[in-house]
Amino acid sequence: MSAVVASIGTEDYSVVLNVKEKFISLYVKPVFSSVMDGAYIYTIKGYSSVLSNGENYELVKSVSYQLNKKYDMPVYLNVNGYPSQFSLLKTLIELIDNVKE
Questions:
Q1: What stretches of 31-71 adopt beta strand conformation (E)?
Q2: How far is 71 from 23, CA to CA, in rounded Å?
Q3: Does residue 101 have a pLDDT over 80?
Q4: Residues 8 and 63 sit within 8 Å (Cβ to Cβ)
Q5: Domain spanning 2-100 has what CATH number?
Q6: What is the pLDDT of residues 59-100, one digit of tens each?
Q7: Secondary structure class of 100 (helix, strand, coil)
Q8: How far is CA 101 from its chain centroid?
Q9: Of 50, 63, 72, 90, which one has the fewest beta carbons inside 10 Å?
Q10: What is the pTM of this model?
């Protein structure tokens, strides 16, 4: 498990990631926020299950689905805040690829 601060769009986010042989888990929140009210979604083989609903449900579901498709493994994803989908996905892929190397 590793934790990093990453710029996603124009904001800095704390990202905790755990990349194992069988699954990926990611927790993303704005650096200066203690609130954890974003959606938390589990995706496997293209199917998603909401573990905790949040206002950013559609964003988290879409990014989780795309990560699941790219890495062909289950993904647990929690995102707090409202980063852009493109920036979030791009940053998470870079972080996952760095951990996998």
A1: 40-44, 47-52
A2: 9
A3: no
A4: no
A5: 3.30.230.100
A6: 999 999 999 999 999 999 999 999 999 999 999 999 999 987
A7: helix
A8: 19
A9: 72
A10: 0.93
